[in-house]
Amino acid sequence: MAGEPDNIILEHLRQIRAVIDKIDRRTEKLEAEVIEIKSRITSFEATMGHVMAQIGHLQAQIASQTRRIDSIEAASTTSNAASILCRCPPRNSRVWQPGQRVPFSTHLK
């Protein structure tokens, strides 16, 4: 009977060792996956940094174009007002048709 308890203890130790080995394999697999995930996150963060920089550049371009459009619209509004006000014939001109627009500079002479 003395041999049987030794064998039972050894059998339990073998089973415990098998479970520990299985846990070790899973742990190694998880460590490899975590390393891969860290690498992917680092790559993703770098890509997002580039995307954010490009968005900033595009926002600056849009702001610049908006300012240009606003100045063009302001100039257009001013020149339209001047051309509306100048629908009278030039002072020294005998040939003028109704509705004909006269450049603003003609009246400044």
Q: List SSEs in N-to-C order.
A: H
Helix content: over 70%
**Radius of gyration in whole Å, from Cα?**
43 Å
Sheet with the most strands, sense and barrel status:
none
Compute the average pLDDT: 82
Q: So what's the overall shape?
A: rod-shaped
- Portion in beta strands: under 5%
Poorly predicted runs are none
- Oligomeric status: single chain
Number of helices: 1
Distance between the termini: 131 Å
Structural class: mainly alpha
Number of strands: 0
List keywords for this structure.
rod-shaped; mainly alpha; single chain
Describe the structure.
- By secondary structure, the protein is an all-alpha fold.
- 76% of the residues lie in helices and 0% in strands.
- It has one helix and no strands.
- It has one helix at 3-85.
- The longest helix has 83 residues, at 3-85.
- It is rod-shaped.
- The termini are far apart.
- The model has no long low-confidence stretch (mean pLDDT 82).
Furnish the topology, listing elements before pairings.
Elements: H1 3-85
Brief characterization of the structure:
The chain is mainly alpha-helical and 109 residues long. It has one helix at 3-85.
